[in-house]
Amino acid sequence: MIRPTVGLLAPGEMGHAVAAVLQHRGVRIITNLAGRSEQTAARARKAQIETVADDAALARESDIFLSIAPPGEAASIARRIASAAVPRSKALIYVDCNAVSPATARDLGAIIAPAGFAYVDAGIIGPPPREGESKTRIYASGPEAAAFARLGEFGLDIRLVEGGIGAASAVKMCYAALTKGLMAIASQAFTAARQLGVADPLRAELAASRPWILDEVDKGLPKVPPKAYRWIAEMEEIGKTFAAAGFSHDLFEAVADVYRQVGEMEPGTYKDVDLYAAGLLAALARRSTAAD
Hints:
Rossmann fold, N-(1-d-carboxylethyl)-l-norvaline Dehydrogenase, domain 2, 53% helix, eight-stranded mixed β-sheet, single chain, alpha/beta, elongated
Protein backbone atom coordinates (compact mmCIF):
# COMPACT_ATOMS: atom_id res chain seq x y z
CA MET A 1 0.00 0.00 0.00
CA ILE A 2 1.23 3.50 -0.80
CA ARG A 3 1.85 5.33 2.44
CA PRO A 4 -1.04 7.74 3.00
CA THR A 5 -0.96 11.12 4.67
CA VAL A 6 -2.96 10.92 7.88
CA GLY A 7 -4.53 14.02 9.41
CA LEU A 8 -5.22 14.07 13.13
CA LEU A 9 -7.20 16.07 15.66
CA ALA A 10 -6.14 16.08 18.35
CA PRO A 11 -2.72 14.72 19.36
CA GLY A 12 -3.65 14.09 22.97
CA GLU A 13 -2.59 11.00 24.94
CA MET A 14 -4.32 8.53 22.61
CA GLY A 15 -3.97 10.52 19.40
CA HIS A 16 -0.25 11.11 19.64
CA ALA A 17 0.32 7.41 20.48
CA VAL A 18 -1.62 6.32 17.38
CA ALA A 19 0.38 8.84 15.36
CA ALA A 20 3.67 7.56 16.76
CA VAL A 21 2.90 3.98 15.68
CA LEU A 22 2.02 5.10 12.15
CA GLN A 23 4.98 7.49 11.94
CA HIS A 24 7.34 4.67 12.95
CA ARG A 25 6.20 2.86 9.79
CA GLY A 26 6.83 5.87 7.59
CA VAL A 27 3.35 7.40 7.48
CA ARG A 28 3.21 11.19 7.27
CA ILE A 29 1.06 12.60 10.10
CA ILE A 30 -0.24 16.16 10.05
CA THR A 31 -2.28 18.28 12.44
CA ASN A 32 -3.37 21.86 13.13
CA LEU A 33 -2.35 22.99 16.61
CA ALA A 34 -4.25 26.29 16.60
CA GLY A 35 -5.76 26.80 20.04
CA ARG A 36 -4.12 23.71 21.54
CA SER A 37 -2.08 23.69 24.74
CA GLU A 38 1.69 23.57 25.00
CA GLN A 39 1.31 20.05 26.42
CA THR A 40 -0.45 18.98 23.23
CA ALA A 41 2.19 20.72 21.11
CA ALA A 42 4.91 18.88 23.03
CA ARG A 43 3.19 15.56 22.39
CA ALA A 44 2.97 16.39 18.69
CA ARG A 45 6.69 17.14 18.53
CA LYS A 46 7.51 13.93 20.40
CA ALA A 47 5.51 11.90 17.85
CA GLN A 48 7.08 13.89 14.97
CA ILE A 49 3.69 15.12 13.82
CA GLU A 50 3.91 17.80 11.16
CA THR A 51 1.98 21.02 11.81
CA VAL A 52 0.03 22.60 8.95
CA ALA A 53 -1.24 26.17 8.77
CA ASP A 54 -4.99 25.64 9.13
CA ASP A 55 -7.92 23.25 8.83
CA ALA A 56 -8.15 23.78 5.08
CA ALA A 57 -4.59 22.49 4.67
CA LEU A 58 -5.42 19.61 6.99
CA ALA A 59 -8.44 18.61 4.88
CA ARG A 60 -6.62 19.18 1.58
CA GLU A 61 -3.45 17.24 2.37
CA SER A 62 -4.92 14.28 4.29
CA ASP A 63 -5.89 10.99 2.67
CA ILE A 64 -7.33 9.71 5.95
CA PHE A 65 -8.41 11.94 8.83
CA LEU A 66 -8.64 10.64 12.40
CA SER A 67 -10.77 12.40 14.99
CA ILE A 68 -9.44 11.21 18.37
CA ALA A 69 -10.65 13.39 21.23
CA PRO A 70 -12.93 13.37 24.28
CA PRO A 71 -16.44 12.53 23.03
CA GLY A 72 -17.74 15.99 23.84
CA GLU A 73 -15.45 17.42 21.14
CA ALA A 74 -16.45 14.99 18.37
CA ALA A 75 -19.16 17.16 16.80
CA SER A 76 -17.10 20.36 16.86
CA ILE A 77 -14.18 18.60 15.14
CA ALA A 78 -16.53 17.18 12.49
CA ARG A 79 -17.96 20.64 11.82
CA ARG A 80 -14.47 22.16 11.64
CA ILE A 81 -13.18 19.71 9.07
CA ALA A 82 -16.42 19.65 7.06
CA SER A 83 -16.44 23.44 6.83
CA ALA A 84 -12.79 23.40 5.73
CA ALA A 85 -13.55 21.11 2.78
CA VAL A 86 -11.68 21.94 -0.41
CA PRO A 87 -11.88 20.42 -3.91
CA ARG A 88 -10.08 17.05 -4.01
CA SER A 89 -9.34 14.45 -6.64
CA LYS A 90 -10.67 11.74 -4.29
CA ALA A 91 -12.78 11.70 -1.16
CA LEU A 92 -11.12 12.20 2.19
CA ILE A 93 -11.78 9.24 4.51
CA TYR A 94 -13.00 10.78 7.78
CA VAL A 95 -12.69 8.35 10.69
CA ASP A 96 -14.40 9.23 13.96
CA CYS A 97 -12.60 7.28 16.68
CA ASN A 98 -14.38 8.83 19.65
CA ALA A 99 -16.31 7.09 22.40
CA VAL A 100 -19.84 7.93 21.28
CA SER A 101 -23.18 6.16 21.03
CA PRO A 102 -24.29 4.60 17.72
CA ALA A 103 -26.84 7.41 17.34
CA THR A 104 -24.16 10.06 17.84
CA ALA A 105 -21.92 8.25 15.34
CA ARG A 106 -24.70 8.49 12.75
CA ASP A 107 -25.21 12.18 13.58
CA LEU A 108 -21.49 12.79 13.01
CA GLY A 109 -21.76 11.05 9.65
CA ALA A 110 -24.57 13.45 8.73
CA ILE A 111 -22.34 16.42 9.60
CA ILE A 112 -19.58 15.05 7.36
CA ALA A 113 -21.76 14.03 4.41
CA PRO A 114 -22.27 17.49 2.79
CA ALA A 115 -18.49 17.89 2.51
CA GLY A 116 -18.35 14.79 0.30
CA PHE A 117 -16.09 12.87 2.67
CA ALA A 118 -16.23 9.11 3.12
CA TYR A 119 -17.17 8.42 6.75
CA VAL A 120 -16.02 5.57 9.00
CA ASP A 121 -17.32 4.82 12.49
CA ALA A 122 -14.52 3.59 14.77
CA GLY A 123 -13.96 2.80 18.43
CA ILE A 124 -10.62 2.35 20.20
CA ILE A 125 -10.38 -0.27 22.94
CA GLY A 126 -7.26 -0.59 25.06
CA PRO A 127 -4.46 1.72 26.18
CA PRO A 128 -2.62 4.16 23.92
CA PRO A 129 -0.80 1.87 21.46
CA ARG A 130 2.93 1.33 21.34
CA GLU A 131 5.06 0.02 18.51
CA GLY A 132 5.43 -3.75 18.76
CA GLU A 133 2.64 -4.23 21.31
CA SER A 134 -0.79 -5.75 20.69
CA LYS A 135 -2.94 -4.35 23.50
CA THR A 136 -5.00 -1.87 21.45
CA ARG A 137 -7.75 -2.64 18.94
CA ILE A 138 -9.58 -0.22 16.68
CA TYR A 139 -13.01 -1.48 15.64
CA ALA A 140 -14.38 0.03 12.43
CA SER A 141 -17.69 -0.14 10.59
CA GLY A 142 -19.43 1.41 7.62
CA PRO A 143 -19.11 1.12 3.83
CA GLU A 144 -15.63 2.68 3.77
CA ALA A 145 -14.24 0.83 6.80
CA ALA A 146 -12.17 -1.55 4.65
CA ALA A 147 -10.33 1.40 3.10
CA PHE A 148 -9.45 2.69 6.56
CA ALA A 149 -8.44 -0.81 7.66
CA ARG A 150 -5.52 -0.67 5.23
CA LEU A 151 -3.74 1.35 7.91
CA GLY A 152 -3.34 -2.03 9.57
CA GLU A 153 -0.35 -2.46 7.29
CA PHE A 154 1.35 0.30 9.27
CA GLY A 155 1.15 -1.10 12.77
CA LEU A 156 -2.46 -0.59 13.89
CA ASP A 157 -4.77 -3.48 14.84
CA ILE A 158 -7.97 -2.60 12.97
CA ARG A 159 -10.93 -4.97 13.13
CA LEU A 160 -13.99 -4.66 10.89
CA VAL A 161 -17.48 -4.92 12.37
CA GLU A 162 -20.55 -5.71 10.28
CA GLY A 163 -23.69 -3.66 10.73
CA GLY A 164 -22.94 -0.30 9.19
CA ILE A 165 -22.33 3.07 10.81
CA GLY A 166 -22.82 2.76 14.57
CA ALA A 167 -21.76 -0.87 14.92
CA ALA A 168 -18.16 -0.10 15.91
CA SER A 169 -19.35 2.48 18.41
CA ALA A 170 -21.77 -0.07 19.84
CA VAL A 171 -18.86 -2.44 20.54
CA LYS A 172 -16.97 0.38 22.28
CA MET A 173 -19.98 1.45 24.34
CA CYS A 174 -20.84 -2.05 25.57
CA TYR A 175 -17.20 -2.79 26.41
CA ALA A 176 -16.65 0.51 28.23
CA ALA A 177 -19.86 -0.01 30.20
CA LEU A 178 -18.27 -3.10 31.72
CA THR A 179 -14.73 -1.84 32.27
CA LYS A 180 -15.34 1.78 33.29
CA GLY A 181 -18.59 0.84 34.98
CA LEU A 182 -16.58 -1.52 37.20
CA MET A 183 -14.18 1.28 38.15
CA ALA A 184 -17.12 3.51 39.11
CA ILE A 185 -18.67 0.78 41.26
CA ALA A 186 -15.27 0.09 42.84
CA SER A 187 -14.85 3.80 43.57
CA GLN A 188 -18.02 3.76 45.62
CA ALA A 189 -17.55 0.34 47.20
CA PHE A 190 -13.98 0.84 48.40
CA THR A 191 -14.57 4.43 49.48
CA ALA A 192 -17.65 3.44 51.45
CA ALA A 193 -15.77 0.47 52.95
CA ARG A 194 -13.00 2.79 54.15
CA GLN A 195 -15.51 5.20 55.66
CA LEU A 196 -17.36 2.35 57.38
CA GLY A 197 -14.17 0.75 58.70
CA VAL A 198 -14.46 -2.50 56.73
CA ALA A 199 -11.85 -2.02 54.00
CA ASP A 200 -9.66 -4.91 55.23
CA PRO A 201 -12.49 -7.49 55.47
CA LEU A 202 -13.71 -6.45 52.01
CA ARG A 203 -10.26 -6.97 50.51
CA ALA A 204 -9.90 -10.32 52.27
CA GLU A 205 -13.24 -11.54 50.95
CA LEU A 206 -12.48 -10.45 47.41
CA ALA A 207 -9.06 -12.11 47.59
CA ALA A 208 -10.77 -15.34 48.62
CA SER A 209 -13.79 -15.33 46.33
CA ARG A 210 -13.17 -12.90 43.44
CA PRO A 211 -9.40 -12.43 43.14
CA TRP A 212 -9.65 -11.34 39.49
CA ILE A 213 -11.89 -8.42 40.49
CA LEU A 214 -9.48 -7.36 43.22
CA ASP A 215 -6.60 -7.55 40.75
CA GLU A 216 -8.46 -5.36 38.24
CA VAL A 217 -9.34 -2.82 40.91
CA ASP A 218 -5.84 -2.70 42.37
CA LYS A 219 -4.32 -2.14 38.93
CA GLY A 220 -6.93 0.20 37.54
CA LEU A 221 -8.50 2.36 40.24
CA PRO A 222 -5.48 4.48 41.24
CA LYS A 223 -5.03 5.43 37.56
CA VAL A 224 -8.57 6.80 37.17
CA PRO A 225 -8.37 10.42 38.48
CA PRO A 226 -6.46 11.98 35.53
CA LYS A 227 -8.86 10.29 33.09
CA ALA A 228 -12.13 10.97 34.90
CA TYR A 229 -12.95 14.23 33.13
CA ARG A 230 -12.82 12.43 29.76
CA TRP A 231 -15.09 9.65 30.96
CA ILE A 232 -18.04 11.84 32.01
CA ALA A 233 -19.35 12.41 28.48
CA GLU A 234 -18.49 8.81 27.58
CA MET A 235 -20.76 7.51 30.35
CA GLU A 236 -23.53 9.80 29.07
CA GLU A 237 -23.05 8.34 25.58
CA ILE A 238 -23.30 4.83 27.06
CA GLY A 239 -26.56 5.92 28.69
CA LYS A 240 -27.87 6.99 25.26
CA THR A 241 -26.79 3.67 23.79
CA PHE A 242 -28.62 1.62 26.39
CA ALA A 243 -31.70 3.88 26.31
CA ALA A 244 -31.97 3.18 22.58
CA ALA A 245 -31.92 -0.53 23.45
CA GLY A 246 -34.87 -0.07 25.81
CA PHE A 247 -33.12 0.45 29.14
CA SER A 248 -33.20 3.48 31.41
CA HIS A 249 -30.30 5.88 30.90
CA ASP A 250 -30.34 6.75 34.63
CA LEU A 251 -27.71 4.17 35.59
CA PHE A 252 -24.98 5.67 33.45
CA GLU A 253 -26.03 9.21 34.28
CA ALA A 254 -25.20 8.19 37.86
CA VAL A 255 -21.90 6.66 36.72
CA ALA A 256 -21.08 9.93 34.97
CA ASP A 257 -21.64 11.71 38.29
CA VAL A 258 -19.22 9.34 40.00
CA TYR A 259 -16.57 10.47 37.54
CA ARG A 260 -17.47 14.11 38.19
CA GLN A 261 -16.75 13.42 41.85
CA VAL A 262 -13.50 11.63 41.04
CA GLY A 263 -12.51 14.57 38.85
CA GLU A 264 -12.72 16.79 41.94
CA MET A 265 -10.00 14.82 43.75
CA GLU A 266 -6.75 16.63 44.47
CA PRO A 267 -4.26 16.03 41.65
CA GLY A 268 -1.41 13.74 42.52
CA THR A 269 -0.39 10.12 42.71
CA TYR A 270 -2.67 7.61 44.39
CA LYS A 271 -0.40 4.63 44.83
CA ASP A 272 -3.05 2.22 46.02
CA VAL A 273 -6.78 1.81 46.45
CA ASP A 274 -6.77 2.94 50.09
CA LEU A 275 -5.11 6.26 49.22
CA TYR A 276 -7.54 6.62 46.32
CA ALA A 277 -10.50 6.07 48.67
CA ALA A 278 -9.11 8.63 51.10
CA GLY A 279 -8.72 11.14 48.29
CA LEU A 280 -12.27 10.56 47.08
CA LEU A 281 -13.65 10.93 50.60
CA ALA A 282 -11.88 14.28 50.88
CA ALA A 283 -13.37 15.39 47.55
CA LEU A 284 -16.86 14.37 48.67
CA ALA A 285 -16.39 16.30 51.93
CA ARG A 286 -15.38 19.44 50.01
CA ARG A 287 -18.41 19.07 47.74
CA SER A 288 -20.71 18.70 50.76
CA THR A 289 -19.19 21.77 52.45
CA ALA A 290 -19.58 23.82 49.27
CA ALA A 291 -23.21 22.75 48.98
CA ASP A 292 -23.87 23.95 52.54
